[in-house]
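Supplementary Note 2. Why include the ligand at all?

Several targets in our set were suspected to adopt different conformations when bound, so apo predictions alone were not considered sufficient. For every target with a known small-molecule partner we therefore ran a joint prediction. The input for magnesium ion is given below.
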Amino acid sequence: MSQMITVLGATGSIGVSTLDVIAGHPERFKVFALSGNRQFQRLAQQCITHRPRYAVVIDAQIADQLRALLEASNCLTQVLCGEQALIDIASDSEVDTVMAAIVGGAGLRSTLAAVQSGKKVLLANKEALVMAGALFMDAVAHSGTTLLPIDSEHNAIFQCLPQAYSNADRGGVSKLILSASGGPFRGWDLPQMTPVTPPQACAHPKWDMGAKISVDSATLMNKGLEIIEAQWLFKIPASQIDVVVHPQSVVHSMVQFVDGSVLAQLGNPDMRTPIAHALAWPERMSSGVGDLDFVALSRLDFEDPVIDNFPCLGLAYGVTEAGKDAAIVMNAANEVAVQAFLDLRIGFTQIADVVEYALNASCFNEPQSLADVEHTDKRARAMTSHRVTQLER
Ligand code: NAD
Ligand code: MG
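The joint prediction is reproduced in C-alpha cell form.
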C-alpha cells in the first residue's frame, strides 16, 4: 500500500527536496495535495509532475493564476485557497502523512491540524513547535500521532536515541549535543557583521535553504529555535542540551550517554537524507544523496559558539529560562526582524536588538489555548513592527 502524502510548503526548499525523494519511489508514495504561497508557476509545474488531487494557495488572485496554468496543461488538480484549505488538506481522512514545511508561524494551524488528526507528521516547521510546544506535544500524545523530526539535528538525535528513551526513563542519555555550522559569519565579530547584506547572510557555506532560515543560521537564532525544538521533542531541559560549532556540517548532532559513549549521525549536508529517513521510517530507503567520502573529508572540527558575537543565541537561552510564552515573543519578533532585514529596513545586527527589545517589553504568561498563542504572537509582531519603524527613522 502506498502512503498518501500532503506537502505543506511544497514550493520551498524542503518541499522541493521532499518531492525529489518521493519521485524516486513512485510505488511507495502518492501525492494527495501540495501547497504554496506566491510561487504559483513552480506549484503548477509540481502539480503537472505529481498530479495531486488538490493544490492550495492563500491568495485568491494567485489561485486564479494557478488554475489558468493548470487548465492550459490539462492538469485535473483542483485549486483551493485560504488557510482553512491548508487545514483541510492536512487533516483529510485519505491522508496518511503530512510534510509540514511551511516557514514560520504561518504553518502553525495546518501543522497542528495534521497532529490533531493523527497523521504521521514530518516536522520541518520548527517555528510551530517553538510557538505552541505544550499544546503541540499534548496533541501528539492525545492523537497518538507519529511525529518525526526533519530538522537535520533533531533527525540525527532521533536516529541515535535508544529505543528505551521515554519521559520517565531516558535510557542512559545524559545530554544532547546539537551541531551548528556557525553560518557564513563564523569567526566574525559584531562590528564586522554590522554592514552585511541579505545576499551575504543568505549565502550559507554548507546548506541551501530558504531565506528566513538562512538568516536565522547567520545570526544563530536558528540554533536557539532548535534548542527549544529539542526541549519539546525529546522532553529534556535546556541544561542538558549543548551546542557545538562544527563547520563541516557532517556530524548532524550527537547523543551523550552516562557511560561515556557518544552516538552521532553523520552524512553529507543534504536535507534529502533526513526527509527520506522520516518518509520511510521505520524502514530505510534511498534518498539520492551520495555516500560520505571520509578520506576527502579528512578532518572534522568542533568549537564553542561565541555568544557575545551571536546575541540571538544568548536571547534564546534566556527564553528557555523564562518559559511561559517567551518563546512565542522571541519567534514572532525574530520573524518580523528577519523580514525587515531582508527588505533592507534594518541592519543585520539590529535583528538581535529588535528581538531583545520585544522580549524586554513583554511580560510572560502561560498560554492555555491556541487563541492565547495567537494573541501573544500577534501582539509581539505588532510591537516589533513598530520598533522597526522607529529604527528606520
Ligand atoms: P522556504 O522559504 O524555502 O519555503 C517556505 C514554504 O512555505 C514555501 O512553500 C512557501 O510557499 C510557504 N509559505 C511561506 N509563507 C507562507 C504563508 N504565509 N502561508 C502559507 N505558506 C507559506 O523555506 P524552507 O527553507 O523550505 O523552510 C521550511 C521550514 O523548514 C522552516 O520552518 C525551516 O525552519 C525548516 N527547515 C528548513 C531546512 C532547509 O534546509 N531548508 C532545514 C531545517 C528546517
Ligand atoms: Mg537544523
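The chain has 17 helices and eleven strands. Residues 3-149 form a domain with the Rossmann fold fold (CATH 3.40.50.720). Comparable summaries for the other entries are listed in the accompanying table.
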